[in-house]
Specification:
heterodimer, A: Thrombin, subunit H, B: mainly alpha
Chain lengths: 245, 177
């Protein structure tokens, strides 16, 4: 896929140069929304009475000891995307030459997008949530119950959430976010919102129709997430599995 | 324009139309994927030997596969119709030998009914095999059957439009010339 990915990437980039203009408005809106959300989280927005409960950002965690940092975000431009097939991929203009490796999570300003599956020198192919074989571990934002999200291939705006026990409280409009147990994404990144609960009396688990946070029709910028501690965790888990066998 | 140059241009044009126009159309329904690109294989000249026909079919499908990141999927379907193509043509053309008198399969060279049958059989074969491979990894039988019918319908409509818009006048060739 390496050389071919480089070649198709060049064509896709040319095409995207035209397509991008028609999506500038919605791209801009998504980025402004993200900025607004991040501004809300600034410590200056919070103030309690008195001097005792002053909120201070702990720079020690970020600067002095690099090893504590777990996730690095790197922006990338989407040059090709599809929603019309059963196996949908994105091509991004950032490849192995720019620190993208396979098995990295990818998010958009609005929510999660997918996982990097192959890379060339300057381009990478991302398997999106809209792929019939894609699954991601998620949790309910309110209760914290974990489940997994997959796509049934019907509508690119909706995915299916499974394995949520019926003891959990699920309401229409609840947020579904990424879980701590997913090693590709930082916890708490929006996946989607509950659109509809599908009744199934024969099962102990809910099947939930989820509206995706990301609009896959016009995603133009994404962030590739590098989990620095991934290899260590993976090696430990693999060696444990080997020992048990 | 020489036959070779014409086909090289068609190769690129069909591929780009498929990747950058037809695949970009927002999906109407999950069963409907507009496939037109394999018309390139149906339009290849009569006089290509089977080996080269199959090889071109494979290479053509593989090129599309690299755009959709599905190595082997379209290549398999294209190789199949490229291989089966000569058999179908042999069954359909008249005994006077339009394959000797004309360059490539078209309405003028084969006649309306045989050409329509040829297109219909190849479209069904291509789509059925492609979606069969997809069905092997996911989906139900309803997905397979529904998608083959819907996709083939759209493909045939697109092929009809292409044939009407770009009517190919085939030159009658004689040995005496």
């Amino acid at each position: 896929m390496g050389v071919a990915g480089e070649l198709t990437g060049r064509f896709n980039e040319k095409y995207n140069g035209v397509e991008y203009y028609f999506r500038l408005k919605s791209t801009n809106e998504a980025l402004v929304k993200e900025n607004e959300r991040l501004h809300q989280q600034l410590k200056d927005n919070y103030q309690g009475p008195g001097q005792l409960n002053k909120i201070v950002a702990d720079t020690f965690m970020i600067d002095s000891v690099r090893k504590i940092q777990k996730f690095i975000f790197r922006e990338a431009k989407v040059v090709n995307s599809s929603v019309a097939l059963q196996t949908n991929f994105l091509t991004i203009h950032r490849g192995s030459g720019q620190q993208v490796r396979t098995n990295m999570g990818v998010i958009s300003p609005e929510g999660i997008v997918g996982t990097v599956v192959s890379t060339s020198q300057n381009f990478a192919v991302v398997m999106t949530m809209l792929h019939r074989q894609y699954t991601v571990v998620v949790k309910l934002k309110n209760g914290g119950e974990r489940g997994k999200v997959e796509w049934d291939g019907v509508n690119p705006s909706y995915v299916t959430l499974r394995d949520i026990p019926k003891s959990a409280k699920v309401n229409k409009g609840d947020s579904i976010v990424t879980s701590e147990t997913s090693s590709l994404f930082p916890p708490g990144i929006l996946v989607g919102t509950v659109y509809e609960l599908v009744e199934d009396k024969s099962s102990n688990f809910y099947t939930v129709k989820v509206k995706t946070a990301t609009n896959f029709y016009n995603v133009e910028y994404v962030y590739v997430i590098d989990n620095i501690q991934y290899d260590e965790q993976k090696n430990l888990e693999d060696s444990t599995r080997k020992k048990i066998q | 324009m020489s036959e070779l140059l014409k086909n090289i241009l068609r190769f690129a044009l069909f591929l780009f139309v498929q990747v950058f126009v037809l695949f970009k159309i927002p999906p109407l329904h999950r069963f409907i994927v507009p496939y037109l690109y394999f018309l390139f294989i149906l339009w290849l000249p009569f006089n290509l030997p089977r080996f080269w026909l199959t090889a071109i079919g494979f290479f053509y499908g593989l090129t599309l596969d690299y755009f959709t990141s599905t190595p082997g999927l379209h290549a398999a379907a294209c190789t199949l119709i490229a291989y089966v193509r000569p058999f179908i043509i042999n069954l359909l053309i008249s005994q006077e030998g339009s394959d000797k008198n004309y360059a490539s399969p078209s309405i003028t060279s084969m006649g309306w009914a045989p050409y329509a049958t040829y297109v219909l059989v190849c479209t069904l074969l291509h789509n059925a095999f492609l979606i069969f491979l997809e069905w092997m990894s996911f989906g139900s039988f309803l997905f397979f059957a529904g998608k083959v019918i819907a996709t083939s319908g759209i493909s045939l409509l697109l092929i009809l439009l292409t044939e009407l818009l770009f009517f190919r006048k085939e030159q009658f060739r004689t040995n005496t010339a």
